[in-house]
Design goal:
CATH topology of one domain: Substrate Binding Domain Of Dnak, Chain:A, Domain 2
CATH class of one domain: Mainly Alpha
Order of helices and strands: HHHH
Shape: elongated
Strand content: under 5%
Number of strands: 0
Number of helices: 4
């Protein structure tokens, strides 16, 4: 009677140990799309976050080939986040440039208004 719970516990542990992480194909696709989107808004190699994203996605692909799906998923998720950061940084920079341009135009208009009688 006492061996039955022990055998059941060992069987559960054995099955849990055999469970493998599934291939993160969807996450890989999402990460690649995030990189494409970052490039589409103007992220280049000069943006550090984009370089990090590309490196992490390359490592994720290597992990996929080695069937190390857990690490591949982790790297792909990190690559997605880095790509989204690169996109946000580029968009933020573009917004700041637009604000500066508008501020200079407002300043010029104020000067013109001051000169008029």
């Amino acid at each position: 009677m006492r061996t039955q719970p022990l055998i059941l516990a060992l069987a559960v542990l054995g099955l849990a140990g055999c469970a493998n992480d599934p291939a993160p194909n969807e996450q890989m696709r999402i990460s690649e799309q995030a990189l494409e989107q970052a490039r589409a808004v103007g992220a280049t190699e000069q943006v550090e976050a984009l370089k990090l994203a590309e490196d992490k996605l390359a490592r994720a692909k290597t992990n996929m080939l080695a069937e190390n799906y857990r690490d591949a998923r982790m790297r792909a998720e990190q690559a997605e986040l880095d790509a989204r950061l690169a996109e946000a940084q580029v968009l933020n920079q573009k917004s700041e440039e637009q604000v500066q341009l508008l501020q200079s135009r407002v300043k010029r208009l104020r000067k013109q208004l001051e000169v008029q009688p």
